[in-house]
Automatic annotation (TrEMBL):
InterPro entries: Annexin, Annexin_repeat, Annexin_repeat_CS, Annexin_sf, ANX8
Gene Ontology biological process terms in this record: endosomal transport; endosome organization
High-level lineage: Eukaryota, Metazoa, Chordata, Craniata, Vertebrata
Pfam family, one: Annexin
PANTHER family given in the database record: ANNEXIN, ANNEXIN A8-RELATED
Protein name, as recorded: Annexin
GO molecular function: calcium ion binding; calcium-dependent phospholipid binding; phosphatidylserine binding
Family: Belongs to the annexin family.
Annotated GO CC locations: cytoplasm; nucleus; plasma membrane; vesicle membrane
Binding residue positions for Ca(2+): 295, 297, 337
Keyword annotations of the record: Annexin, Calcium, Calcium/phospholipid-binding, Metal-binding, Phosphoprotein, Repeat
Length: 354
C-alpha cells in the first residue's frame, strides 16, 4: 500500500516543487524586488529622474526604477517554491549578493506579511522549534501553541524538532517545557514529546479500542472525580487511527462524545490539552485550527503556522474537511478576514478551492 500512501500525500500538497528550478534567477528576482536595487538604479540616473512617480517605468530609459519593495514579486517566487527550493534560493542569494535572504526580507517587509514570508524561509523543523521557543519566552507560556504542535507531529518529526531546538537555542526542549509548566499539563506535554502515539501501520485492535473506551468511561463518567492520568495515558500513547475507534466506542457506551466528557470533567489548560490531543487524531482537527485562524478576529499566528506547516503535507485534505465543517472554503474565509499582500500570499499557499 506504499504507492497509495504516497499518492494520498501528493494529493494533499498545495505547494509543490517548481519544475525546471534554478535558484540563481529566483535569487536575483528577489534582490531586484527589494529597495536596495531601486536605490542603486536611481543613483545612476540624473537627479530629475529620482523624483517619485506612480509609473514604475520611465519613458526613454531602459532601466526600471522600483518604487520601494515589489511585494508581488516576492510572493510569486516564495509561495510557488517548495521549502527545499527556498533553502537553495537563500544560499544563492548570499553567494550572489553577500546578504542573508531572511534578514533582508525582515528589513524590507513588516507586519503579518513579514511574519508569513519569514515563516516560509525557515526549514520545517527549525520553524516549529522557533514557534515552541517563542511560546515559552517572555511573560506567560502560550500552552495552546505547544500543545498544537506536539499533538499533531509524528515521532520522527518530534525528534527532528527537538534536535533543531537544542541546536538553535542550546537547551533541551523537554527540560524547557518542564521548567515552564507544571502538574498534569506538564505530564501530558512530556508524554506527547515521546512520540508514542505514532503508528504508521494504521492497524487498530478492536478489542483494545473497546477496552480503552471502557477505561476512559470508568475514569471519568462512572466514578466520583476524574482519573486524569488514565485519560493522559490513553490519549498520549495511542495512535490517531486507534483513538478514532476508541472515541466511536466511547460514544456508544457513554451516550456522549469524548469531547463533551472532557469538557465536563476537566478545565483550564488541562482541558485544552486533552481536547487538542483528541481532536488531532483527525484531519478535521487541522480544519478546526484553520477556522480559528481565519475566522472573525483572526488569530494570525495560528493561521500562518498551520498553512505554512501543512502546505507540503495535507493542506488540500484539510481544505476539503474545512468546507464540510463550515460550509465555506478556507480561501473565502481568508479573503473575508485578511487583506493586502498578506492575503495574496496566503491564497497562493492555499491554492484553488476543492
Amino acid at each position: 500500500m506504499a504507492w497509495w500512501k504516497a499518492w494520498i500525500e501528493q494529493e494533499g500538497v498545495t505547494v509543490k516543487s517548481s519544475s525546471h528550478f534554478n535558484p540563481d534567477p529566483d535569487a536575483e528576482t528577489l534582490y531586484k524586488a527589494m529597495k536596495g536595487i531601486g536605490e542603486w538604479a536611481s543613483a545612476a540616473l540624473p537627479p530629475l529622474l529620482k523624483t517619485p512617480s506612480p509609473q514604475p517605468w520611465k519613458q526613454g530609459h531602459s532601466r526600471c526604477i522600483p518604487a520601494g519593495t515589489n511585494e508581488q514579486a516576492i510572493i510569486d517566487v516564495l509561495t510557488r517554491r517548495s521549502n527545499a527550493q527556498r533553502q537553495q534560493i537563500a544560499k544563492s542569494f548570499k553567494a550572489q549578493f553577500g546578504k542573508d535572504l531572511t534578514e533582508t526580507l525582515k528589513s524590507e517587509l513588516s507586519g503579518k506579511f513579514e511574519r508569513l514570508i519569514v515563516a516560509l524561509m525557515y526549514p520545517p523543523y527549525r520553524y516549529e522549534a522557533k514557534e515552541l521557543h517563542d511560546a515559552m519566552k517572555g511573560l506567560g507560556t502560550k500552552e495552546g501553541v505547544i500543545i498544537e504542535i506536539l499533538a499533531s507531529r509524528t515521532k520522527k518529526q518530534l525528534q527532528e524538532i527537538m534536535k533543531a531546538y537544542e541546536e538553535d537555542y542550546g537547551s533541551s526542549l523537554e527540560e524547557d517545557i518542564q521548567a515552564d509548566t507544571s502538574g498534569y499539563l506538564e505530564r501530558i506535554l512530556v508524554c506527547l514529546l515521546q512520540g508514542s502515539r505514532d503508528d504508521v501501520s494504521g492497524f487498530v485492535d478492536p478489542g483494545l479500542a473497546l477496552q480503552d473506551a471502557q477505561d476512559l468511561h470508568a475514569a471519568g463518567e462512572k466514578i466520583r472525580g476524574t482519573d486524569e492520568m488514565k485519560f493522559i495515558t490513553i490519549l498520549c500513547t495511542r495512535s490517531a487511527t486507534h483513538l478514532l475507534r476508541v472515541f466511536e466506542e466511547y460514544e456508544k457506551i457513554a451516550n456522549k462524545s469524548i469531547e463533551d466528557s472532557i469538557k465536563s470533567e476537566t478545565h483550564g489548560s488541562l482541558e485544552e490539552a486533552m481536547l487538542t490531543v483528541g481532536k488531532s487524531s483527525d484531519v478535521h482537527f487541522s480544519g478546526h485550527r484553520a477556522y480559528h485562524g481565519a475566522g472573525a478576529g483572526t488569530r494570525d499566528g495560528t493561521l500562518i503556522r498551520n498553512i505554512v506547516s501543512r502546505s507540503e503535507i495535507d493542506l488540500n485534505l484539510i481544505k476539503c474537511h474545512f468546507k464540510k465543517m463550515y460550509g465555506k472554503t478556507l480561501s473565502s474565509m481568508i479573503m473575508e478576514d485578511t487583506s493586502g499582500d498578506y492575503k495574496n500570499a496566503l491564497l497562493n499557499l492555499v491554492g484553488s478551492d476543492p
